[in-house]
Write a structure and sequence with these properties.
Length: 130
C-alpha cells in the first residue's frame, strides 16, 4: 500500500492487487469483503455503493481511462462525534475499487481520524491474504 498526493493536495492510500494475489475474482467480491468489515465494526455505518463507471459512461461527455473495466465506491461513515460543522466536509468515507485487465486498484482518501485510517488500511491489506 502506498501513500501519495493526488493532484498535489489529496492524501490517498492505494493498493494495486494483482488478480492472482487474492481469491477475490470480481469487484463484487471485493465490495462484499469491505461490506462485511463495515458490518462487523461496532461504530461504522454502511451507506451504499456508487457505480462510478456506469454513471460516467452514461454522460454524453463522460471520459473513462482506457483499461478500466469497472469503478465502484463503497460508502460508509466512522463518525461517532460531531465536534463542529466542518467535520461533515470530510465525511462520509469511501473506498474505491477499480478493475483493470490483470489487477484491482483500491484507493481511499486519508481520514482525519487515525483509527479510521488504520481500519481501512487493514481491511484493504488483508485482501492479499484471502
Amino acid at each position: 500500500m502506498i501513500q501519495t498526493l493526488l493532484q498535489e493536495k489529496y492524501p490517498i492510500y492505494t493498493l494495486e492487487l494483482e488478480k492472482n494475489e487474492t481469491s477475490c475474482k470480481t469487484v463484487d467480491d471485493i465490495l462484499a469483503h469491505f461490506k462485511q468489515r463495515i458490518d462487523d465494526h461496532p461504530v461504522v455505518c454502511y451507506i451504499g455503493v456508487f457505480d462510478h463507471y456506469a454513471h460516467t459512461a452514461s454522460l454524453p461527455d463522460g471520459v473513462i481511462a482506457p483499461g478500466i473495466k469497472a469503478a465502484i465506491n463503497i460508502l460508509f461513515c466512522f463518525g461517532k462525534e460531531i465536534p463542529n460543522p466542518g467535520v461533515l466536509a470530510v465525511r462520509p468515507r469511501s473506498i474505491g475499487v477499480v478493475e483493470l485487465a490483470d489487477s484491482f486498484v483500491i484507493t481511499f482518501l486519508e481520514a482525519p481520524n487515525p483509527a479510521a485510517n488504520e481500519a481501512m488500511e487493514i481491511w484493504t491489506k488483508v485482501l492479499k491474504n484471502l
